[in-house]
Design goal:
Number of strands: 3
Structural class: mainly alpha
Shape: globular
Number of helices: 12
Radius of gyration: 21 Å
Mean pLDDT: 87
Distance between the termini: 45 Å
Strand content: under 5%
Largest sheet: 3 strands, antiparallel
């Protein structure tokens, strides 16, 4: 690790940034350095200006990708190098006017039916039924499940916030059945050993990347043309809850949103409890 990277990492830690944010910010600075093939502390303000123009006009980066790059680069130059350049104040990613992709209950069922391995199917069902982010679903631990109250304790969610979300009875039953296949005392979805064998002594949860690969494969096999991702399950969960009569304020709390403006507002005809496939 270079001295410059170590300093930036320490600055991020002192600001209380999460590990995920630290990785994103450091990656943004590394990509800037790779673009100009030199150390980032040797890059001038005009080069930063041209870099963001290149991102916008040549690469057509999304608003989210541009925002991450801007935040990471701004933090590095302002906090680590103490250079508050005008360009860093000027760059403003254009706001997207897109609505989130939402799957119907039938489409959710159609996709999950094509996930053959139980560890991935139960994980994805849990993510959907509880409205979780991928990084909240895969590392769930056995003590996070409050069976008596039918709640899931989400620890260290986005922004480092904990919260409780409802756990449907059918999902609870699926989790109980699935746990009997591995009996890991820590992880609900433990990483597998060689040959795909569940490991009762596994020390790590399922990798997020493998869950993403399985979902993309199931989406292709389903024939559904929507540009969906695992995060689409979260949007769809919020939409279906709203249609089922759950008020917006409650949905906002379940999803861990700071503002109701980020909570999905759509309609769907069926209840979440009608989605799940019963087989393991």
């Amino acid at each position: 690790m270079t001295e410059l990277r170590r300093r930036m990492l320490e600055d991020l830690q002192l600001r209380g940034m999460s590990e995920r944010t630290q990785e994103c910010y450091i990656r943004a600075v590394r990509q800037l350095a790779d673009h100009y093939h030199k150390s980032p502390d040797q890059i001038c303000e005009e080069e930063i200006r041209q870099y963001f123009l290149w991102m916008k006009n040549v690469k057509h980066y999304s608003r989210a990708a541009t925002t991450i790059a801007l935040c990471g680069i701004k933090f590095f130059f302002r906090q680590t190098l103490h250079q508050d350049w005008t360009t860093l104040k000027l760059v403003r990613p254009a706001r997207d006017q897109k609505l989130p992709v939402v799957l119907s209950p039938e489409e959710v069922r159609h996709i999950l039916d094509r996930v053959r391995l139980s560890r991935y199917r139960v994980c994805l069902i849990t993510i959907y039924s509880c409205g979780l982010r991928l990084q909240e679903g895969t590392p769930l631990q056995v003590p996070d499940i409050d069976s008596a109250r039918q709640l899931v304790h989400i620890r260290h969610g986005k922004g480092g916030k904990d919260r409780y979300v409802p756990l449907p009875q059918r999902t609870l039953e699926l989790l109980r059945q699935f746990w009997l296949t591995h009996r890991n005392r820590v992880w609900l979805f433990p990483a597998c050993g060689r040959g795909g064998i569940h490991m009762p002594t596994a020390t790590q949860p399922l990798p997020k990347s493998s869950v993403q690969i399985v979902f993309r494969q199931a989406l292709r096999e389903s024939g559904i043309a929507k540009c969906a991702s695992i995060h689409t399950l979260r949007h769809s969960s919020a939409t279906h809850r709203l249609e089922n009569g759950v008020d917006l304020r409650t949905i906002k709390e379940y999803l861990g949103h700071n503002s109701a403006h980020t909570t999905v507002l759509s309609k769907s005809p069926l209840a979440i409890s009608d989605i799940f496939v019963s087989r393991i």
